[in-house]
């Protein structure tokens, strides 16, 4: 009986902290979203519906959790933060990524993978609808990992929280081109530092969407422009 009691004491203790509940919440969101989305809302594409709904859910559920637990908005990146810090590093990172993405967009793995929604390759209107929905998706994505998860863990884990939030972020790149998957480890750490120090998810949303947009743009429009010239 003592061993059983001890087991349940450890179990209760392991899930009773705010940090544990935050980790469990993120895990549940990812699993349930994968199995139960999209919910039909009228868009013609299941892919677009899923990305839109994921972006909304990734934001709303953690936000409600934060409010219920009395977490301040500046603890989860929902402020402008230290603009002087993050605007400089955002600019530097984007310059680097513009060059890298332009080179990578010529590689077969990237040309075949992007845009993720293939009809966006064929229709300019669909392309912009897709990119707009992806912007909403990245707001939810960045809040879930860099805002909510990092913010909830930083008091207890300090800088280690940066690595913890990077792990699920990198794992979600596992089906993408290998170079991108490996790069997501460094990118996840960099973006984590940006929020840890800058105390805002704004730069991460800008960077993540801008890099994804530039990749799609290079694959679709720069390729078309090149072929038209020839």
Task: Give an overview in words.
The protein has 230 residues and is mainly α. The chain has one domain (47-229). Helices cover 78% and strands 0% of the residues. It has nine helices and no strands. α2 runs antiparallel to α3 (46-68) and α6 (124-157) packs antiparallel against α7 (160-171). The chain is globular, with a radius of gyration of 19 Å. The relative contact order is 0.14. The model is unreliable at 225-230 (pLDDT under 50).
How many individual β-strands? 0
Q: Average pLDDT, to the nearest integer?
A: 91
For the record, the count of structural domains works out to 1
User: What's the total helix number?
Assistant: 9
Largest sheet: none
Amount of beta strand? under 5%
Shape: globular
Low-confidence stretches: 225-230
Helical content class: over 70%
How far apart the termini lie comes to 80 Å
Report the structural category: mainly alpha
- Radius of gyration, rounded? 19 Å
- For this structure, the quaternary state is single chain
Order of helices and strands: HHHHHHHHH
């Amino acid at each position: 009986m003592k061993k059983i009691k001890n087991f349940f004491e450890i179990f209760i203790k392991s899930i009773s902290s705010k940090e544990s509940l935050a980790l469990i919440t993120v895990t549940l969101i990812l699993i349930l979203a994968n199995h139960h989305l999209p919910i039909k809302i009228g868009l013609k594409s299941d892919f677009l519906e899923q990305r839109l709904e994921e972006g909304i859910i990734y934001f709303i559920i953690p936000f409600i959790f934060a409010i219920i637990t009395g977490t301040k908005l500046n603890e989860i990146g929902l402020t402008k933060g230290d603009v002087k810090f993050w605007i400089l590093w955002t600019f530097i990172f984007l310059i680097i990524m513009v060059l890298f993405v332009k080179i990578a967009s010529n590689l077969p793995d990237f040309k075949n993978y992007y845009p993720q929604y293939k009809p966006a390759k064929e229709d300019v209107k669909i392309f912009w609808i897709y990119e707009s929905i992806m912007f909403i998706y990245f707001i939810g994505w960045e809040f879930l990992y860099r805002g909510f998860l990092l913010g909830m863990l930083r008091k207890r884990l300090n800088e280690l929280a940066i690595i913890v939030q990077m792990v699920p972020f990198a794992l979600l790149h596992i089906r993408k081109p290998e170079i991108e998957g490996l790069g997501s480890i460094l990118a996840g750490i960099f973006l984590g530092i940006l929020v840890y120090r800058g105390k805002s998810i704004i730069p991460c949303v800008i960077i993540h969407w801008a890099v994804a947009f530039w990749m799609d743009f290079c694959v679709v429009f720069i390729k078309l422009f090149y072929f038209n010239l020839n």
